């Protein structure tokens, strides 16, 4: 058995179901849990290095133009100030996810308000912060800069679908819907601000940073600095939330590196909270038009989804709003297209579930309008429109659990499939109603390597530069390896987040778990080959449990005093093109809406999800809870608000950008729908980090309508908008 | 600031910093290496920096270290260790009441003091009346923990973990 697999074929053998340890798929608690709850898990800014300097970024007060002069002398005489760094290597933006090369340089060329332009370094944080406010900067500012995505021409995006004649289908259909929704920008707002400590020993640079994808970040940072990758080590053992914002190397990491190399002392740079919101990625606002045509039976004959998003000139990323619309519902006449407006707001990039996070809620609202027109239960409308194959390119689905999710979710929630009309229930000042939505999120896997070492003492060590951003990577790797090698979780040590280890896939796009656990699985298969030879059985027959061959020798005996190591290497092959692979699900929500203020409170939410093999029921459920919580924010409160005059982000902190707090989140039920998807990965697992928010805001919006009769077409559905749409 | 001025952190006396601009949070993180207390916003908006001062929870980013002459500060490191965790720390692990873990020390410090506030009969927006005994109800916990943001969205599990420790309401 080779430890390398390029997966061209589905794997439906499900080896993991036939192992004996019984630890994978359980509710094992996080193996790093005690470090987190006692405050001893080190995040990027928390390594204690002697003689460490503190840096604070200085950001632009113009929206577009050029820094013409930085007057370092204006601060160098202040107490403790060591240097003003304005090297051309400083980066103006964060790298997009998987870029693998330097983001925009130099920082002196300003593309958006709040862009980092320099770094002030001092002996203490207080001194650096003070000096950063006093640094004199001169600019040449451009006039006629566009900030409003609706006020500029937009560029069409590649990848449009045009099939049949949608306009004709709309005209002919007994039921049709033509509606337009808007969504505002979202911020990842991870709790740990972006931070880095860089240390240069004259030859090698070590950077402790808060990053999701070290496998790409190392190239991005090396390219930014003009340094060879083998002179660079990145460490991200604990990441205080990412949600896309830490996919690419960001400005503080480059700035700390440049300063450390220039000054010969370690330098720590942590972004201020306002800087995190203003210079890391925003999710683009969107405008989305839906045209849905259906027959008497509610079956779609036409499906149109056209979206407009925005980004800075030169940025390749465009919020992939249509991603799941391409395959979620049937309809032979199809028009799907996107366009990008070029404006000078901060960089648009990945925020948790790019595309579906805003595309799915809007689509699911349009489907609710259609269900009402057809006089069909909204669950039934979805069930009738699940296609057999990808409706445009005809590829088969790798596995498809939408119907089961709809049915099991409806049952768990207690969904009433009877006739629906708004304002059926009032409790005092509150209208009470329910709504539902489908969930879909494309599944991806990426190339991944992990080394698994069976130690002579009968424990195992897993090493990879893969990260755990709260997703549970540490624990599911321990479980996967424990399952394959017959070890309890406590006997498996997992080391992550260090580029000295084999390259993992990085955490992003929900592909981390399936990819890295597949690499570990392959390493374990190769280890099992050797163990089987030593135990004189076929590998397929080798039963390992609790550190021994069942009824036979212990691992310690088989190892005979020597470690045994294998590097697993997984790569997706033809499966990526031969199948349409996606996680599916369904959301059900009950809300109450205040008839006088328009305030919405979510009372209960159920999510049913099918995402292949569940590696850990506890951490997978947490991912779903997190996604559903984000759904509440996207539905009701989260909106990045930009100043029309200079394009700056006006609500750039956690007091003004409203993420859900504890009291906003009610009881949430999560239902796992049993699935094994052999075309998704050799361990039959798909991603779950994002599916929990891919449609949930739509269920809440539909419940608002069912409660009070307000059809709102703008997310988030703040009280003012609900009130304005509420019938008398 | 003379060096006689001290603050007690987890039972150990520490001289207050010379620079009056140093927040209590930065004193903990930068001067003492007590990085269990987290900085999420530095503006009193997130609760990640919650510590106990004389038994009462506060946002340590919103207070200057020099204001704490003679005070007793307890941080997450003072509540328990990996070898000997507190009941809440254990419950957070058991209930998966976190994901990335960055808000977690603040949540646990906050919950520790919050349960005392309920026991002492301090009312909240979720309370039925302004005086009289308070229940440790789900709604009270949600309201009183709303100053601690968890962007990972672990709220449902945080409430469960706190309830495990507080016991079911009457
Ligand atoms: S860091 Fe103090 S409240 Fe956010
Ligand atoms: S666990 Fe990540 S912010 Fe709460």
UniProtKB/TrEMBL annotation, chain A:
Q: Which residues cross the membrane?
A: none
SUPFAM superfamilies per the record?
CO dehydrogenase molybdoprotein N-domain-like, Molybdenum cofactor-binding domain
Q: What residue ranges carry the coiled-coil annotation?
A: none
- Gene3D superfamilies reported for this sequence: Aldehyde oxidase/xanthine dehydrogenase, a/b hammerhead, Aldehyde oxidase/xanthine dehydrogenase, molybdopterin binding domain
Domain named Aldehyde oxidase/xanthine dehydrogenase a/b hammerhead: residues: 38-143
What is one Pfam family matched by this protein? Ald_Xan_dh_C
Q: Does the keyword Oxidoreductase apply?
A: yes
Protein name per its UniProtKB record: Xanthine dehydrogenase family protein molybdopterin-binding subunit
Protein species of origin: Alteriqipengyuania abyssalis
TrEMBL record, chain B:
Q: Which InterPro entries match?
A: 2Fe-2S-bd, 2Fe-2S-bd_dom_sf, 2Fe-2S_ferredoxin-like_sf, 2Fe-2S_ferredoxin-type, 2Fe2S_fd_BS, Aldehyde_Oxdr_Iron-Sulfur, Beta-grasp_dom_sf
Q: Give the taxonomic lineage as stored in the record.
A: Bacteria, Pseudomonadati, Pseudomonadota, Alphaproteobacteria, Sphingomonadales
* Gene3D superfamilies named in the record: 3.10.20.30, [2Fe-2S]-binding domain (1.10.150.120)
- Please state every residue range assigned to the domain named 2Fe-2S ferredoxin-type: 3-79
Q: Please indicate if the UniProt record lists Metal-binding as a keyword.
A: yes
The record's SUPFAM superfamilies line, in alphabetical order, gives: 2Fe-2S ferredoxin-like, CO dehydrogenase ISP C-domain like
Q: Which UniProt keywords apply?
A: Iron, Metal-binding, Oxidoreductase
Among the Pfam families in the record, one is Fer2_2
Identification of the protein by name: 2Fe-2S iron-sulfur cluster binding domain-containing protein
